[in-house]
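User: Sequence for UDP-glucose 6-dehydrogenase below. Tokens please.
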Amino acid sequence: MAVIALKCPSIEGLGAGKAADLTYWESAARMIADVSKSDKIVVEKSTVPVKTAEAIEKILTHNSKGINFQILSNPEFLTEGTAIEDLFKPDRVLIGGRETPGGQKAIQALKDVYAQWIPEERILTTNLWSADLSKLAANAFLAQRISSGNAMSALCEATGANVSQVSYTVGKDSRIVPKFLNASVGFGGSCFQKYIPNLVCICECNGLPEVAEYWKQVIKINDYQKTHFVNRVVASMFNTVSGKKVGILGFAFKKDTGDTRETPAIDVCKGLLGDKANLSIYDPQVNEDQIQRDLSMNKFDWDHPLHLQPMSPTTMKQVSIVWDTYTATKDAHAVCILTEWDKFKTLDYKKIYGNMQSVTC
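Assistant: Structure tokens for UDP-glucose 6-dehydrogenase:
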């Protein structure tokens, strides 16, 4: 059994930021075909566009030298910060394969591996295309929930409603449940921002412009939320943050991880820097080099090999990275909490407020 777990970056050039680059997958398939000496089950683990398995199958078949290959799609549903727990107690394991005797035999072989520690009722089997699409669909639905909550937060601000109370009330409906409903600065990470545009691209390529437009709105609301947040910060300080210190608490896209890929903090910081604010940034797990690099990178640069990324971060005079919450907020005119670290819930906010500058300065 051969398992392929590779990155699937967005392509550059035509379709940039939307279509997926399958170069690494093609290379891996050709390598497997070249070194294989007996029949193999090839399992794709990464999130890939629908029909990727078919492309891998063609490459392997045309270079098989008589060897039989069965392709399975076994998309990953682990989440950062809880990956080990997710591995041992997953909501489900999904295995997709051909609806042929050989394909069903391969599915059963992989199912037997998972059955060593996962209850059989949580191991789902589908055809190849359903498995590929299910991962994209799961990401899209989760992102949609976040964007829905954030869209509602803007309406709550405009009407005087409390978004936390509204989210709590809505989440009590058994048809909706409370997860992913809390308002935030926006979603980040390597999945949502990349794979929803992949889904949009697939819809457009299959002649479904209305469906594509629907999913585009999820990304648009997310971008709006970050811009809206920056505008509120600026508006709260007499419509200018020029020369003013803004404390930034949290830079990772989620708590319990140092991952900064597509973190909303990047866009928020760039928005404030564009208005000439001075930023003092603190995150428990993200180092100075990473923050400086992220703020100097173009969108999706992180998704490509290191040699294509900025060799060394560009130091910005308006940005300082500190390793203490109270240093980040001392003499600040405003404080922005951009990552939901648990430690931020227990800070002495009276002390922080007492050490801040008056907004009238």
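Strands lie at 2-4, 40-44, 69-73, 93-97, 123-127, 245-249, 278-282, 319-321, 334-337.
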